[in-house]
Every structure is written in C-alpha cells, then in structure tokens.
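Technical annex B. To support the medicinal chemistry partners, we prepared a structural model of the target in complex with nicotinamide-adenine-dinucleotide, based solely on the information shown next.
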Amino acid sequence: MVRLILDSSTGGYPVLIGSNLHRELRNVIARLDPTGAAIVTDTNARPWALKVAKAIKRAGLKTGLLAIPAGERSKSMLRLQEVLAFLERQQIDRGGCVIAVGGGTVGDLAGLAAAMWQRGVRLVAVPTTLLAMVDSSIGGKTGVNGRRSKNAIGTFWQPSAVIADLEALETLPAPAYRDAFAEVVKYAVAMDRGLFDLLQRNAPRLVERDRSMLERVVFRCVAAKALVVAKDERDRGPRAILNYGHTAGHALEAAARFRITHGRAVAFGMRVAARIAVAQGICGKRVVEAQDELLEAFGLPNRPPHADPKRVLAAISLDKKARRGKVAWVLPRRIGHAEIGRSVPGPLVRRVITRSLA
Ligand SMILES: NC(=O)c1ccc[n+]([C@@H]2O[C@H](COP(=O)([O-])OP(=O)(O)OC[C@H]3O[C@@H](n4cnc5c(N)ncnc54)[C@H](O)[C@@H]3O)[C@@H](O)[C@H]2O)c1
C-alpha cells in the first residue's frame, strides 16, 4: 500500500492506494469519528459498497446505503435531490460524513451533496474505476450536469480521505478500464517523464491489470494531479495543464454527439495537440510517435473517429467564444512537459484536425 497526504485549503487529507484496504478504511473512518455515515453508490459498484458498509459497521458505526442507477444521466438535479433526501433520512448531521463508492459519476454527485448538506459535511471517496482513482476523486471538483451543459452545477469540496482499493478494478468492464489510460498517458506526456517510461516498459502488465504495477501508476497520477491542484485549487491558472488533449477532445465529443467515449476523445485530442506542437516547432516528431505508440499499447489506436471536421472546428470556436477569444491549448514541449495558454493560428488547427480525421 502507498499513502500520500495531500494539501488543500481546508486541510491535509490522506490518499491510500493498495489492495484489500478494508482495515485501513475502518481506521480512517475511526479517526474521522463521524456521528453517522451515509454511503452513496451506483448499481454496478454496489457489491464494493456493501464491503465498505461491512467494514464500517465493524468500526461500530451505523450506516445506510443508497444505490443510484449507473451512468452519466445520474449526474442530475433529480438525483441530487434523491441523495439529499437520503442524507436527511439517515439523519446525517454536521458531524456526519458521506462515503462515495463508485466512479466519477457517483463521486461528483455525492461530493456535491456532501458540499451542500448542512452547508457541508465530510466526504470520503472510495473510487472504484481507474478514472476515479487517477483523476476525479482528487482535486475537489464536484457537480452535476445542467440540461444541456456538462458539470454546469457544482462546487469545490475537498474530501477528508480517499481510499483507492485496486481490488475494485477486477470487475470494471474493459472499455472503462482502457479509456482511463487516456488520462494516465495525459499525465505522463504533460507532466511526468518517469511515468511515461514506466508505462512504456510495463504496458502489457498494466493491460493485464497487474496490481503492483497499478499501485505505482495510480500513485504517480495522483501525485501529478495533486501538484497542480495544490498550486491552483480553484482552476484559475496552472491547473489548465490537466486539460492536455481536452481542447480537441471535448470538441470531438460534442461533434460526435457523445457517441465516442471520453477516453477515446482525449486520446484523439492529445494526438492533435502533439501534431500542432510539432507544426509550431515547439517539440520534435519523436513526441508524436512515442505518444501514438503508447496510446496504441493501451488499446487506444489511431483510427480516426467518425466525425465531420467542420463540426469539430465549430465546437472549438464555440469554446473560443466562451473564453472570450482564447482557446487554452496545452501543447507538449517534450515528453513529461507541456505548456499552457498558447494560441494557435486557425488555419493550422484546421489542417491538423482535418488530417487527423481523414
Ligand atoms: N471531479 C473531477 O475532477 C472529474 C474529473 C474527471 C471526470 N469526472 C467525471 O467523472 C465521470 C466519469 O467517471 P467514470 O469514468 O468513473 O464513469 P462512471 O462513474 O460512470 O463509471 C463507469 C461505469 O463503470 C461502472 N462501475 C464503477 N465501478 C465499477 C466496478 N468496480 N466494477 C464494475 N463496474 C463499475 C459504473 O456503474 C459505470 O457504469 C464523468 O461524469 C466526468 O465528468 C470528474
């Protein structure tokens, strides 16, 4: 097991990464000493939530469990109300805590409920997807979707502890597991050369879900994210580096009307960003090749997704308008280092996107 203590404006909190962490979970909860605990999960992560409930009961704490329907649609105001009503039924008072057991969907929803209930109760995150372990459980962003806009309603609310038990990844469907590697490769290319080397050397073991290797990889991703979040908790500057691959990625998702997974879209977005960087003379061709090879090794191949380049470009310019004329391109300079806030000439973006989708 590895343990990190992350800094936040509301105090430090532990992040535990390992296997069979039931005893550690019990100890963490005992240390928080809540007056009550309410577990929020979804229908697929429920078996893991039941294990968490068992561990907590052993700590002598009464707890209830709510399982929402699995899927992004649950990040809604309706479900938020349902979670808040559950916290009320459970009589969670200001000394209580919410335990989110699931992927980013559950984490974002339960996190927002925790931030709102009684003007904020403690949140313990037990991520059960690889994406939630390396990304969404860290950094304190919570939220639900508006009718037409993703993550439009939310807060920053830091957890009191994060417990990433790699055992949960055993039941994670292959597409969700594979997709998370887009974010893992993102950290490696934009921030951590050592992680990139580790991934290159051990891709087959990771594809096989080797736990000791996963422990090292999740640790490095959490450390990378924690580093930028500590500098910019409220996402006003340096945190933008985490958007590497997301400018073209989000645009592709919108253009394909979300028929492409987020991971595949981010992989596409990183390919586009690296090619733009080469064309601008910021980095060498080797970055493009090495990144392509690594994405391929994790099952994120360079097959152009079906999407109209014009739609993708339109989505990028919508983003530009929303940001008052500035698209926040994050471009790699070399493996392990990217720069933020570069503006890129429109014709170059058009050329690279059109080629990447051909
Ligand atoms: N807060 C943040 O900083 C942040 C960062 C990145 C993404 N997100 C959000 O996270 C969400 C995506 O997260 P995700 O990829 O974890 O998706 P998810 O939570 O929807 O989980 C993916 C699928 O796996 C299932 N599942 C979860 N754990 C499982 C397990 N152990 N075994 C079997 N099935 C399991 C879920 O029920 C779901 O069907 C998006 O809503 C995104 O906006 C938030």
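Notes passed to the chemistry partners:
DSSP finds 13 helices and eleven strands in the chain.
The pocket of nicotinamide-adenine-dinucleotide is lined by residues 42, 44-45, 48, 70-72, 75, 102-106, 108, 128-129, 131-132, 135-136, 139, 141, 151, 168, 171-172, 176 (CB under 6 Å).
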